[in-house]
Amino acid sequence: MSKKEIKSVDLARKVAQIFADRKGFDISILDVREISSMTDLYLIVSGNSSPHLKALYDETQKELKKDGLLCYRKAGDPQGGWLILDYLNIVIHIFSKEAREYYAIEELWETAPRIDPLTQ
Q1: CA–CA gap between residue 31 and residue 95 (Å, rounded)
Q2: Per-residue confidence (pLDDT) for residue 1, from 0 to 100
């Protein structure tokens, strides 16, 4: 897939599958196109530990790079429980369970439609 061929939803589902294959859990895709000018989709996943969060973060970048997709911006720290990968049309949030509950992104964007992460 080239950058021009991949759509936001397809990219989010590709990443969701990467997460599912690597034991990420509570995978969620929020469609914010109608309520935010920042991005199309938020993809949210939880991991079990700092090393698990880092593995999800690294593996996502590695797999997307194979398709010629480079991360525009990244932030966070596995020790802090929240890592972000910005691919412009999707923003990926990788959380510890505790950080995800604390920051409650799904509640902030509660009016955003949900997309099934693993259905094509």
Answers
A1: 19
A2: 40
- pLDDT above 70: residue 83: yes
- Burial pattern 11-29, b for ≥16 Cβ within 10 A else e, equals bbbbbbebbeeeebeebbb
* 56's tokens: 């999800």
Query: CA–CA distance from 45 to each of 10, 24, 30 (Å)?
Result: 17, 6, 12
Domains delineated in the chain? 8-115 (3.30.460.10)
pTM of the model: 0.91
Q: CA-CA distance, 114 to 48, in Å (whole number)?
A: 23
Collect all residues with Cβ–Cβ distance below 8 Å to 58 and sequence separation of at least 6: none
Structural tokens at position 115? 């997309």
Q: Is 108 helix (H, G, I), strand (E, B) or coil?
A: helix
Residue 59, phi-psi category: left (phi > 0), alpha (psi -120 to 50), beta (remainder): alpha
Q: Can you give the pLDDT at residue 17? A: 95
